[in-house]
Structure formats: C-alpha cells, structure tokens
Amino acid sequence: MGDHSDRNPNTLDTTATAGQGQVEKFQDPGLPPHRPRLADKDPRAEKRAERQVAILFAISVIGTLLFFVGYFAIPLDESTTISTLRLQNLLLGMGIAFSMLGIGVGIVHWAKTLMPDHEVAEERHEVRTEEDRGDAEQIVGQVLDESGIKRRPLIRNTLIGAGALAILPAIGIFRDLSKNLDPEVLGHTLWSKGVRLTRDPEGTPIKASDVTFGAIFHVIPEGLNELSEGKLVEKAKSVVLLVRLNPADLHPSPGREDWAYNGIVAYSKICTHVGCPVALYEQHTHHLLCPCHQSTFDVTQQCKVIFGPAFRPLPQLPITVNSEGYLVARSDFHEPVGPSFWERALLVKESGR
C-alpha cells in the first residue's frame, strides 16, 4: 500500500467526513404553479357547477320538508301499527339525511369548483389588539368577495333557504319537550296485584321453578297481547327483565325485603337515561348493560347505576308467587318508569308513590 500521509483530506479521492466543508443552505422551492380548473376557463362549466351547488341545496330543502311530512302528517295514536311506525322512521331518517347531506356536499362542491383555490403563504403575525379590527373586517369582506356569494344569487338564496329550514326539525322535536306530562302516562302500567309474569312475546306464564340461576327472561304482563288498542304504548312501559341470583347476593333496602322471591328479581327494561331497552346481562358480575350508551346497573344493589350517563336505578317490580307457583306482581311499579326528566318529581308526587 502506498503512503497517503501527504494527501489533502479535502481532495476528491478521500472520503468526506462529518463537519468537512460548508453545507449549502436549503432553498425554498416556493409554491407550486397554479392549475386552473375547468370552471375557471369555461363560463359554461362555471354555470353548470353553480347549478349543481344550487341543486344540492335544494335537495337539503326537500329533505327537511320530507322530515316534516313524517313528523306531522303521520298520526301516532292508539291505532298506530308497526308498519306506520316504520314508515315514519323511514321518512324521518331520510329527511334528516338528505337535509344535512345536501348542505354539506353542496358547500364542499362549491369550494372545490367555484371558490378561489390559489395557494397563499403568509407570515405569522403577533396577536394584536383592537387597532387591527378594521383589518379584520377587511379580511372578512375579502373572503365574502372571493367566495362569490355576493355575485351568485342562485347559490346564496338556496343556501339561505336550506340553512333556515335545516334547523326547523330540531325545533319541531324540542317542542314536544314542553308538553305537560300526564302522571297517568308514565306513573302507571298494566302491572297490578296478582297479574302473572309472562314471556315476551309468547305471553306464556312463568313459574318460579322455570327460572334457573343466571337465567334472564324478557317479561310482559299477562293480558298485554290481548289488547286491541294501545298495545305498543303499554308494552313500552310494562316490559321487565327477570333474573335469578343467590338470595345472599341481594342487598335490598328497608321496605323492599319481600320484593323478590327466592332470589328472583324483576326490573324495568327501560333505561333511565333515554329509554333504550336494557337487554344485556353479565352473569358473572350480575350487571345489566344498556347497549345505547353503556349505562350499567348492578342487580345485586337494586340496579344501582355503576357506570354511564343514566341518572337513577331501574325501577323494581315487586313480585311473589301464587298458589299455583306462578310468578305474579305484588303491585305496580312504585315510581314512574322510563328516562329521567325534570318533571319526574311531580309525577311521583301526583301519582301518590
């Protein structure tokens, strides 16, 4: 090997090492060249895009009107059938979907085809005080000018119409919350002393011997299936869950010691959050779970809420057995069933419970 002691480390035949030489500063490549869209070059394409945006906003208006047809035009009374409910739910769902989708897609299409799409790089400025309010107003005015909303009355008017109508379904729904609730509606159900517990939906009576440890029954009051009017309303209030535990695991509060029978307890199936059906039972933990918002109730502690947004325990139905061994109710629920609401205390007071 030759002698390399006289070679310069900066010559081309040597390996460069870190720190040698001057590193060239990275150059800002700048913004990419702007590519005009079809609507920027062709007036007919511009008009076509404008009409498309207006049509999408019009679809939103139609969706809102469809919602109102389902909400107001379809009566819900004692004679309401499942098919009627399904039709109303279809109209309500499709109405809300088209209402929101029309506005959202319309605004996106407007921005992508008609609003200016030049890329702009601005230096970040320090936060300033009211002396720059005039500049802020100027920027807002510039945004309005660039959006074209001032010079595109078709888009502007359809957007205003769609936006104004889109909030009306919420107002229509909230108006129902202002109605005074009759204590008889939620304060009383078909349960009363001696009414047998039957399987849902068959309506066959249940004996205490039929309920094994860990089993869960979906239960309705006897005679519900024979109703000719108001069956759905009564079922929505009366349906309960029947569970059997080891009596030693139950912890009844004073006055409720005889509300269960040999470890068999019955609780309302209607969640006290927003009224979803509580249908999931964890046998090892003795927990009931609402699938809508994960409210969890502990059966061993009188269905006390241990997790989730529910505010109060599930109402308990007092039960016992008759002379034939069938499970029967001792009485109706001792409190209104269903979701918690601001008039619940009034219902309890007026129902005398």
Number of helical elements: 9
Distance linking N and C termini: 106 Å
Percent of residues in helices comes to: 25-40%
Structural class: alpha+beta
Count all strands and give the number.
10
| Sequence of strands across the biggest β-sheet | 1-2-3-4
Stretches with pLDDT under 50, minimum 5 residues:
none
Query: Judging by the overall fold, what is the CATH architecture of the largest domain?
Result: 3-layer Sandwich
- How much of the polypeptide forms β-strand, as a percent range? 5-15%
Structure, described:
The protein has 353 residues and is α+β, with helices and mostly antiparallel strands. The chain folds into 2 domains: 39-117 and 137-178; 183-351, Rieske [2Fe-2S] iron-sulphur domain (Rieske Iron-sulfur Protein). It is built from 9 helices and 10 strands. The protein has helices at residues 38-41, 43-73, 82-113, 133-147, 153-166, 168-175, 183-187, 231-238, 344-351; strands at 197-199, 216-221, 240-244, 264-268, 280-282, 287-289, 296-298, 304-307, 319-321, 327-329. The strands form 3 sheets. Strands 1-2-3-4 form a 4-stranded antiparallel sheet. Strands 5-6-7-8 form a 4-stranded antiparallel sheet, with no helix packed on it. Strands 9-10 form a two-stranded antiparallel sheet. The radius of gyration is 34 Å and the shape is elongated. It starts with 37 loop residues before the first helix and ends with a helix. The chain crosses the membrane at residues 53-74, 90-111, 154-174. It is a multi-pass membrane protein. InterPro entries: QcrA_N, Rieske_2Fe-2S, Rieske_2Fe-2S_sf, Rieske_Fe-S_prot. Residues 8-20 have a biased composition (Polar residues).
